[in-house]
Amino acid sequence: MRAGILGVGHYLPEQIMTNHQFEEKLETSNDWIIARTGIRERRIASSDMDTSDLAANASLEALEQAGITAKDIDLILVATGTADYEGFPSVACLVQDKIKARHIPALDLSAACAGFIYAMVVAKQFIETGTYKNVLVIGAEKVSKKLDWTDRNTAILFGDGAGAVVMGPVSEDKGILSFDLGSDGSGAEQLYIRDHLKMNGREVYKFAVRQMPKSIQHVAEKAGLNLDEVDLFIPHQANSRIIEEAANKLGVTKEKFSITLDRYANTCAATIPLSIKEELRSGRLKSGDMVIMVGFGAGLTWGSIALVWGK
Ligand code: UT7
Fold this sequence. Notes:
Peroxisomal Thiolase, Chain A, domain 1; 2 domains; 4-stranded mixed β-sheet; about 30% helix; binds oxa(dethia)-CoA
């Protein structure tokens, strides 16, 4: 039995914050931000919405797309680094209540911007062993509440949002073919949240450019794939220059990489499911497509999945 994606949902806060809005407060410019990161604008959640609200909204759409109800879900996994409560309870428990799921297991998973990939791999194990049928996997972040708005090195880079998928058994020619996960805790201080998010941008950049192509190569090898057989790469997006360098290293055209960073910035664990949703809506992602998803971030962590899209 193979595990795959049965439905996809997303939620983006309405409020758009442009690069120009930073020009008034910080020593930066729209031109610098676009040239050095590829970001033009980001969404910022209102004060009455926390991460679990974004997550619940994305989940309801994913359930509808999968053609099931909250009562059919057997497990909720939330990848997040910006939970409603510091410590506990988990966002997943809040989502369980908000979407009116049964009293099923619900937990958060902390692997930063690789979190959605990690959560999908955890879901795959439960599905393929027959333990659970439908697993709700969410990437949700209200990063804005953890930003130091006086720090031009970090404030301009992030945005809020949520994406969710329903995972379950799919036919033998679809679903997850292989995965690659890893960590290197010696890089913990390069990117962390205590009160606020702090990042050594240059070091994280170097790590990303090194590790992203490696992980893509590993996952492709494990699936017995040549990279030219891949229809679409869905990467975590922190900086468009990272994607370009990774694409160059791999000898793949950058047009094969999904990009939503220009409009939503880096939404941490939500970036990959938000990009999946966009590619579906635009009609670029279709049943039978060969897809590689790749995440990397704080920890340091990384992870990739190769899958054939569809049920
Ligand atoms: O999702 C988790 C993973 N996160 C990442 O992968 C992020 C990785 N890092 C990056 O994307 C980039 O390192 C940044 C976008 C954070 C920085 O871009 P950069 O081109 O690497 O800039 P830099 O750190 O080399 O800094 C160049 C200059 C510095 O000034 P000095 O020291 O040369 O005088 C910075 O202070 O650019 C300055 N700078 C800015 N200038 C205008 C940094 N941020 C800004 C800014 N506006 N917002």
